[in-house]
Design a protein that fits this description.
- The protein is α/β, with parallel strands linked by helices.
- Helix content is about 60%, strand content about 5%.
- The chain has a five-stranded mixed β-sheet, with helices on both faces. Strands 1-2 form a two-stranded antiparallel sheet.
- α21 links the parallel β3 and β4.
- The radius of gyration is 26 Å and the shape is globular.
């Protein structure tokens, strides 16, 4: 038996020479990428965060499923984003869990189970989408660049952090990048199926976040300009028709609310997007100053603070090489994937800079673009420019990769959502440039610390839970008795015993000036070098 096993292994790796074949190498690369993805996404997934938007999407996905089961299809429209893809992805597995266990309602004891199921569902869909990107990019740029790209994107710290939260930004990001690659690929392949897939992914992008509709006019203009430049204008009508048909069919197929009131749904999506996303601001603290409209400089600052130095160096290198080439030859390769992607992503950055509502997560869609540019930059340097000292150069690159990508993944895990570029100094210094939002990070550990220290009589009975005051109560309410949680902006100090503040949250003027009680800081919880949560004890004056 042992000899047979040894012979098999010998055949597999020596006589069959599997690893040295192109197919074997591709399989090995895919296995490595899957392992990297799972290692960085799955551990502690249920207990790293409960963001307030995620709590909302738990409720919305439930209503979505209720609408499907009852035939009240208008209920599948829950929000202007509209988040339809997210509700499908997390709603069905959660409903299956309910049917299997008989647990039909959320409470503080089972929320973590529901949360884990929802997040795992989103994470595994992300894995599928990363796989699609890998093969599309491999067909366009070659397997080597696709491998480098996938590895860097999977390990880019802030991107990993956003991949782990229950939200739409990474899902939206991957849909966008797949759409752009499909559009680029489809016109060069000249096959109807590719342009139809492009229309389908435009629809999925739009059904994730309404701003995704911008891919449709971009796709239309690209098709028109491409065939005009190629002097094949006879194909324009056919390709545009296929794009619109697949887009429309996907929207109606995936979004049941469109079956009953399509005009109302579309009108409400865009009117609410304009009201909330454009006119209504969002509180940000920049350079220590609080504002409702962060201005045009906000997103460049976000990219500076949240993108790793390793990617920034690669981007700078490539842009410098492009500039040098332009100065020497007075031209840029008009058919390049870089130029094509740049037109869209620069347009996205400009469009997102106009609305008053600005959030750092809205820059996550630019990460695949930045990673792609960085890969191109490093690839040119180490495969075409560096010749003599290639070994030393690769060693230097490896050290930079370990220092600025691998080490942050290890040190910050699982709270990579709080990542800041070390070139800006300590996390506290970076926090003074763009203030970190609590966003429910570490809320499970905060609850555990509070219960271990303040639970009445050491009991975990609901009646003995301490009364807590928060600014954003949604994350803690999901895992704590609701009757014991109070919004400090709406309820006075007399109602609770402890005040819990997240990073960059402050005590209200009413609390500081209360004549009956004083508050003393008694407990801190640190994440990424920041005093992320602070617990204040109420004491009589």
């Amino acid at each position: 038996m042992t000899n047979m096993f040894n012979n098999y292994i010998s055949c597999l790796f020596n006589k069959c020479n599997l690893i040295n074949t192109k197919r074997g190498k591709i399989i090995l690369v895919i296995v490595i990428l899957i392992l990297v993805f799972l290692i960085t996404r799955i551990p502690l997934l249920s207990r790293d965060e409960i963001n307030p938007d995620g709590v909302n999407w738990h409720y919305r996905s439930q209503q979505f499923i209720v609408g499907l089961k009852s035939g009240d299809f208008l209920k599948t429209y829950q929000h202007y984003h509209p988040g339809v893809t997210l509700m499908w992805i997390m709603g069905i597995p959660v409903e299956m869990y309910k049917q299997i266990t008989g647990i039909n309602t959320y409470d503080m004891y089972n929320f973590e189970d529901f949360h884990l199921i929802a997040k795992c569902s989103i994470v595994f869909v992300q894995l599928l989408l990363h796989g699609i990107i890998f093969f599309l990019l491999a067909n366009i740029t070659g397997y080597k660049k696709a491998w480098y790209f996938s590895l860097l994107l999977l390990l880019e710290p802030f991107f990993v952090g956003n991949s782990r939260i229950l939200h739409m930004d990474v899902l939206f990001t991957l849909f966008i990048f797949i759409t752009l690659l499909l559009l680029y690929h489809s016109l060069r392949k000249g096959k109807s199926i590719w342009i139809m897939l492009s229309g389908m992914f435009i629809a999925l992008s739009f059904l994730t976040k309404s701003i995704g509709i911008g891919l449709l006019p971009f796709g239309v203009l690209y098709i028109i300009i491409y065939f005009i430049l190629e002097k094949k204008t006879r194909f324009i009508t056919r390709y545009l028709l296929l794009l619109f048909l697949s887009f429309t069919a996907t929207v109606f197929l995936v979004f049941p609310a469109m079956w009953v009131k399509p005009s109302f749904v579309i009108q409400d999506i865009f009117s609410e997007s304009e009201r909330v996303g454009v006119r209504k601001g969002h509180t940000q603290i920049i350079m220590g100053e609080e504002t409702e409209n962060a201005g045009f400089h906000f997103y460049p600052l976000v990219l500076a603070v949240k993108v790793s130095p390793f990617i920034q160096l690669g981007v700078f290198t490539y842009l410098l090489l492009v500039l040098i080439k332009y100065v020497k030859q007075r031209k840029i390769n008009d058919g390049s994937l870089f130029l094509y992607l740049s037109i869209f992503y620069i347009g996205y950055l400009l469009v997102m800079s106009f609305p008053s509502k600005k959030i750092d997560r809205y820059m996550v869609p630019l990460f695949p673009y930045l990673v792609y540019i960085a890969v191109e930059g490093y690839y040119i340097v180490f495969n075409k420019i560096v010749q003599r000292k290639k070994t030393i150069s690769i060693l230097l690159l490896f050290i930079l990769f370990i220092s600025f990508v691998i080490i942050p993944n290890i040190n910050l895990f699982p709270y990579l959502f709080t990542y800041t570029n070390p070139l800006f100094g300590s996390p506290d210094k970076a926090n003074k440039i763009i203030a970190q939002k609590p966003f429910g990070m570490g809320i499970f550990e905060v609850k555990d610390k509070i219960m271990n220290k303040y639970a009445l009589y050491g009991s975990k009975d609901k009646d003995n839970y301490p009364k807590l005051g928060f600014i954003d109560i949604k994350p803690i309410e999901a895992i704590y008795p609701n009757s014991k949680v109070f919004n400090i902006r709406e309820t006075g100090l007399g109602s609770y015993d402890y005040v819990v503040l997240g990073v960059n949250e402050n005590l209200t003027e009413e609390m500081l000036n209360d004549s009956r009680y004083t508050l003393e800081k008694d407990l801190s919880f640190y994440i990424n070098g920041l005093e992320y949560w602070r617990v204040y004890v109420k004491k009589p004056r």
